[in-house]
Amino acid sequence: MEYGQWWQSLHRTMLRGVLGKTFRLVGYTIQYGCIAHCAFEYVGGVVMCSGPSMEPTIQNSDIVFAENLSRHFYGIQRGDIVIAKSPSDPKSNICKRVIGLEGDKILSNSPSGFFKSRSYVPTGHVWLEGDNLQNSTDSRYYGPVPYGLIRGRIFFKIWPLNDFGFLRDSPNGHRFSDD
């Protein structure tokens, strides 16, 4: 075999090897990307909450785990803390507590706190409020939230470690029953 033929053969072999590895890497990247997407979309993920609306339950910069299976199986209940797309700004997410489900009549304080208002939660919607009622933009401002905007249910606080654990109780006097 001549030197030129040997060099071309080596070059083709190396090119095939590099192209084969590149295509395998691209294939694995797509495959694992799809798995990661499904895991984050349907199973859940870690979320950092910001803002004062859920204080004292969730402080600014707390890290929580949100599971997404409940929203797919309509398992959201009164008292759950959820992550939802903001009805007033679809580019941002909100973290609020579910106060009412479809068909519920809600008696809540107005945002100013001077008077009470009655609202009805229509089919396919939920009523969301922050635990810090004086510092929360929630359903008292924008009304019932479509169920489809719910992204996940927060049930476990990861950080800070001194608050590590499950979440459920409401500090502002809301009582929840499954009646």
From TrEMBL:
It comes from the Eukaryota. Keywords: Hydrolase, Membrane, Mitochondrion, Mitochondrion inner membrane, Protease. Signal peptide: none annotated. GO terms for biological process: protein processing involved in protein targeting to mitochondrion; signal peptide processing. It is an enzyme of class 3 (hydrolase). The keyword Hydrolase applies. Its EC number is 3.4.21.-. Its main location: mitochondrion. InterPro entries: LexA/Signal_pep-like_sf, Mito_IMP1_subunit, Pept_S26A_signal_pept_1, Peptidase_S26. The active site is at S53, K96. Heterodimer of 2 subunits, IMMPL1 and IMMPL2. Catalyzes the removal of transit peptides required for the targeting of proteins from the mitochondrial matrix, across the inner membrane, into the inter-membrane space. Known to process the nuclear encoded protein DIABLO. Belongs to the peptidase S26 family. IMP1 subfamily. This is Mitochondrial inner membrane protease subunit. It comes from Physeter macrocephalus (Sperm whale). The lineage of its organism: Eukaryota, Metazoa, Chordata, Craniata, Vertebrata. The gene is IMMP1L.
